[in-house]
Amino acid sequence: MALCSDPVFVVTKGGRRACVENFLDYERAKSVANSIINSVKNFDKPHSSNSVKIVKTKFPHKIR
């Protein structure tokens, strides 16, 4: 996989990819992240490995 010409946003949970999509729009990534956060709150105990973040990168293939 090659370098993306424009940065993309990747939603991660605990440092690992939580969604297979790469988002060009931060607001769309935020919407998906909020959906995942609500699911985590309902099913998982609070823990640092459950942290959901949005990562801006030109190397989305490196986030597993």
Portion of residues in beta strands equals 15-25%
Helix fraction, binned, reads 25-40%
Biggest sheet character: 3 strands, antiparallel
Structure annotation, total helices: 1
Poorly predicted sequence stretches spanning 5 or more consecutive residues: none
What structural keywords apply?
64 residues, alpha+beta, 1 helix, 28% helix
Q: Could you please describe the fold and organization of this structure?
A:
This protein has one helix at about 25-45; strands spanning about 10-15, 15, 50-55. It is α+β, with helices and mostly antiparallel strands. It has a three-stranded antiparallel beta sheet with strand order 2-1-3, covered by helices on one side. The chain is globular and about 40 Å long.
Layout of SSEs?
Layout: E1 8-13, E2 16-17, H1 26-43, E3 52-57
Antiparallel strand pairs: 1-2, 1-3
How would you summarize what this structure contains?
With 64 residues, the protein is of the alpha+beta class. The chain has 1 helix and 3 strands, in the order E-E-H-E.
